[in-house]
Amino acid sequence: MKPNKVLSQFAFLVGDWDAEISNASFLPDPNSKMKGETSFAWVEEGAFLVERQADMNGHVQAVWLIGHDDSTGKYEVLYYDTNFGRQASRIYETDLKDGVWRKWRNAKGFSQRFKGIVNSDKSQVQGLWESSEDGVRWKHDFDLLYTKKRS
């Protein structure tokens, strides 16, 4: 199988990253930080890109599978998590343009969006998540910092 060329712009993500959540509305102390690990890897020799988010003990808590739809030109993401005792499955869109990585979903009753700024050497992504119940009024959910691990 040949790699999916349209996913090549995401290639810098491949590898292991430290992840830090801060300023989170769902943490008992909004000033506390939650650390974890995130890894990105090619699936099926580059047909898809998978993101696995884990806690500090290495237990995977969320999986994102990134692909591309030739007919629409959109990048689609299948998401699944077991955070906080739930099992959530969602479909997002994503894109990466001019050093800004975005993920979003517009769903009745609960929309979400992420905006991450990729630094110049592509070793950090500083981002934030927002949510909305009506798709009009958005509220800050949490900040997320990815820092690539050096091998």
Describe this structure in words.
By secondary structure, the protein is an all-beta fold. The protein has one domain: Beta Barrel (Lipocalin), CATH 2.40.128. Helix content is 0%, strand content 58%. The chain is built from no helices and ten strands. The chain has strands at residues 15-22, 34-43, 48-55, 60-69, 74-81, 88-97, 100-105, 111-118, 124-132, 139-148. The radius of gyration is 15 Å and the shape is globular. It starts with 14 loop residues before the first strand and ends with a strand.
Instruction: Provide the CATH architecture.
Output: Beta Barrel
Instruction: Please report the total strand number as a whole number.
Output: 10
- CATH fold field value: Lipocalin
**Which CATH C-level class is it?**
Mainly Beta
Q: State the fourth-level CATH superfamily.
A: Calycin beta-barrel core domain
Number of domains: 1
Element order: H for helix, E for strand: EEEEEEEEEE
Strand content: over 45%
Main β sheet profile: 10 strands, antiparallel, barrel
Query: What Rg do the Cα atoms give?
Result: 15 Å
Net shape: globular
Tally of alpha and pi helices: 0
Helical fraction: under 10%
Strand order of the largest sheet: 1-2-3-4-5-6-7-8-9-10
Return the average pLDDT rounded to an integer: 94
Low-confidence stretches: none
Could you tell me how far the N terminus lies from the C terminus, measured between alpha carbons in angstroms?
28 Å
The SS-based structural class is mainly beta
